[in-house]
Amino acid sequence: MDPVPDGQSRLRIAIEAAGRDEVVVVVTGELDCATADQLRTAITALLNRGDVHAIGLDLRGLGFIDSTGIGTLVVAQRISAQVGVRLRLTAVSAFAARVLGVLGVDVILGLPPARIDTTALVGAD
């Protein structure tokens, strides 16, 4: 893996208003052990505001996620629920959808269950 130049993060986070009491957190880049604290900090700040009742996570631009990133999403969902804030995934990259589905946390995070296209399976009878 190439080193990231100083001042450039492998993770970018943008907060967009989606309604009076709802925001979308757009996450792009790599969500891993080196960057997960940035997302944790952003979500914590939103929860501490007190005026946010729903947080959508847009992971369309996520190119990589590791176990620390997945753990961060699951813990954020649990803590959000405990304080009465709905947190759910609104969009995911194909890579993230596959990883989350394999681990069984996709539905917990608000994605519909993945369906396997059996026509694409070779030798499936």
How would you sum up this structure, described in words?
The chain is α/β, with parallel strands linked by helices. The protein is 32% helix and 29% strand.
What's this model, at a glance?
The chain is an alpha/beta fold and 125 residues long. It has helices at 36-49, 67-82, 94-103; strands at residues 11-17, 22-31, 54-65, 86-92.
CATH superfamily: STAS domain
Termini separation:
41 Å
* CATH topology heading: Transcription Regulator spoIIAA
The main sheet comes to: 4 strands, mixed
| Lateral arrangement of strands in the main beta sheet | 1-2-3-4
Briefly note the structural class of the backbone: alpha/beta
Total number of beta strands: 4
Summarize the amount of helix as a percent range: 25-40%
Mean pLDDT figure: 86
Number of H/I helices: 3
**Any idea what the shape is?**
globular
Quaternary structure annotation: single chain
**Percent of residues in beta strands?**
25-35%
What is the CATH level 1 assignment?
Answer: Alpha Beta
What is the chain-wise order of helices and strands? EEHEHEH
> pLDDT below 50 for ≥5 consecutive residues: which ranges?
1-8, 116-121
CATH architecture: 2-Layer Sandwich
